[in-house]
Amino acid sequence: MAENIVQRLRDEIENGIVTNQFAPGDRLDEMQLAKHFGVSRTPIREALMQLGAIGLIEMRPRRGAVVVEPGPHRIYEMFEVMAELEGMAGSLAARRHTDTDRTELLAAHGRCEQSAKADDADTYYYDNELFHQAIYTASHSSFLIEQCTALHRRLRPYRRLQLRVRNRMKTSFSEHGGIVEAILSGEAELARALLRQHIAVQGDRFSDLVATLAQREVRPG
Amino acid sequence: MAENIVQRLRDEIENGIVTNQFAPGDRLDEMQLAKHFGVSRTPIREALMQLGAIGLIEMRPRRGAVVVEPGPHRIYEMFEVMAELEGMAGSLAARRHTDTDRTELLAAHGRCEQSAKADDADTYYYDNELFHQAIYTASHSSFLIEQCTALHRRLRPYRRLQLRVRNRMKTSFSEHGGIVEAILSGEAELARALLRQHIAVQGDRFSDLVATLAQREVRPG
DNA sequence: ACTCTTATTCTTGCATACAAGGATGTTGAC
DNA sequence: GTCAACATCCTTGTATGCAAGAATAAGAGT
């Protein structure tokens, strides 16, 4: 209970950032956070240090910590790398997946189908995360799983935006179908290519994203 | 100058880990480090938190921080991911490199040639790092550069070991030649494949690595 | 003699205190 | 009226202190 307070703080603040509760550019006041969480500044600082090391916040010397504002180009770069890592995970999953992985992947795919049919964007968003997590797991590379999970998490806010674009949800789900087939039939390179394309934010899709981001600039808060 | 002490501490400790001054499994005593660096425990702890977030050390609750011991399989996984990222960097470099990048890459390649010819493993080790850094830079993806640099750094100790294997240095340099050619002639996929293979620790090479690691187990300290 | 239990010590976890460097507001001069 | 300089305040950076849990050592019982 009085255990890893700093761990809890890190997760809470990270979550706040990822859910846009702390928007990019916001300053994270140590005393304010300390008061909010009912702890002293010390564990807050330690949590912030961790977030800074991961790259979620920027710690300007003597001037406090701010949530990083990646900028469209940088977000694009992050999606590029994510695409590559996901492709790798898919490739490995195609070669290494077990029966359990197969069951889990199909289950996750099934859940995506339901939320896609119900046109429930929020549920689909969540199920989609589980789907990708299932692929990571099936890669059986613990390090790759960690890397993918971390980056996936960092890209959360932008993926969420993307789902609002046109009928991205239906497109996304239909792409999932091909990916599942490729993985389960062991076609590593096909799985890689499909996943890479699935993630890659390029061409018109990227334009949409930038447009959406630009809109968000003029937010009330 | 007396600025970010914690930043300096982080770098110093990280360097100590990467250079095996702090060996895997070693416990990092806060008071000991504090005394050694002439500071209090607070900045030490904050530095350790950062290293923990990166994954270089493990912070066991109430039981102190220890340098992580990756284990051969995990090291293999890390090399796998590194290979993929390097391949991606090479591919992007082939498509995006500027004249400056070209000059830098050739210069780094030239330095590697000299140290390889001189059979100077230590210098080659350093020049090799610059060579790969030149490729990252030529990819013109700041995020990818950061990811590659971080992982490259984490794999330092093991790459160093690898260089001692057989005539790895000569082989490494000859592979560099093909990579340079592929990048400068814009053959993205060839560059990717060559770099991936260059990094990948597989088959006999991996056996060599494990053997070398096993030897290191019985170290004097 | 060996093991289990208990007490002591040592280290970590968190809070508080103090110093120092930016941010800000006010006042004065042009 | 505006800009600049100075003083004040506010936040961060670091040290220290105290409490609590884990490692360790000592003692008793089998």
Tell me what you see in this structure.
- The structure is a homodimer.
- Helix content of chain A is about 75%, strand content about 5%.
- The first copy, chain A, is mainly alpha-helical.
- Chain A folds into two domains: about 5-65, Winged helix-like DNA-binding domain superfamily/Winged helix DNA-binding domain (Arc Repressor Mutant, subunit A, Orthogonal Bundle), CATH 1.10.10; about 70-215, Up-down Bundle (Four Helix Bundle (Hemerythrin (Met), subunit A)), CATH 1.20.120.
- The first copy, chain A, has a three-stranded antiparallel β-sheet with strand order 1-3-2.
- In chain A, strand 2 and strand 3 form a beta hairpin.
- The model of chain A has no long low-confidence stretch (mean pLDDT about 90).
- The interface of A and B includes residues 46 and 78 of A.
- The first copy, chain A, binds a DNA duplex (30 and 30 nucleotides) through helix 3.
